[in-house]
Amino acid sequence: MSRSQKTNQEIxxxxxxxxxxDTNRLRPGTDYIISLQGKAGYVAQGSHCATDKASAxxxxxxxxxxxxxxxxxxxxxxLLDNYEMSTGVSETVTxxxxxxxxxxxxxxxETEVMKCAHKYLVKKGQSPSDLVKFxxxxxxxxxxxxxxxxxxxxxxxxxxxxxxxxxxxxSEIMGLHNWIQFYLQEKHGNxxxxxxxxxxxKDTVRYPDEDDHxxxxxxxxxxxxxPVGGSFIGVSPEFEVAVFTIIFFMSNEKMTSVVVKVDxxxxxxxxxRHGCSIGTSFPKLLSSNNRDL
Length: 293
Hints:
- This protein is of the alpha+beta class.
- The protein has helices at 9-21, 64-69, 71-79, 95-108, 112-123, 131-142, 158-164, 179-187, 237-248, and strands at residues 32-34, 59-62, 166-168, 172-174, 191-196, 200-201, 204-205, 214-221, 224-232, 255-262, 265-274, 277-288, 291-292.
- The protein has a four-stranded antiparallel beta sheet with strand order 10-11-12-13. Strands 5-8-9 form a three-stranded antiparallel beta sheet, covered by helices on one side.
């Protein structure tokens, strides 16, 4: 991204409103503790070799009791095991899983974060004011199944790609931009954190902090390396859904990218469309607290 790309003030304002309303955001150092360790090196796309600059996991501690006590997190965690990670393998959605999808949407729509996002999208003429119709719109954006692999069945959806993660032909890890899934997969030994990614800025390298709520990470999932993946850390599921739904509706382009300053973080937020659904969405941390990354 060119440095000249300007901050979008309108989107910045609405996202900061969502940030302030995100009362379910966890507190770094209290509700969870991360260990950033070393700065990850360059890995070519498709390579499975990455020098591990982090001998320990990213997450030292997460208060799982707190996670499970918050309805939106509990509903979110229920969804994570509902997907087949391989693209090209058709998804079968059971009636129980269908119910869990709707329970998640019902839960997030009770939060002030999603009520605020809904209000904004209605004002912009992008969403129906009727709650039932808006929930259907959210369902189609995030949960409607589509073909990602050529020649396969309906093997993917926005939620699966962004929050769960997928593998392509058993050789590439795609998506997995969610900190809760990262933590759970790390705990089960499937994810190996390799280090944080930060850009060299002339002669200096500025480092992220362990209380940062957005990070660029390098990791492997079951041996497949993701050279860099942007992720919010500690934020609620409803915050991420709200943010990326708003960006999704900014344009009908295949890819929408916007630069915003949310709290202390200068971010590029990216959404790729797959028809009328989300193909992928993720944050890229550009700088934090005036620290150039």
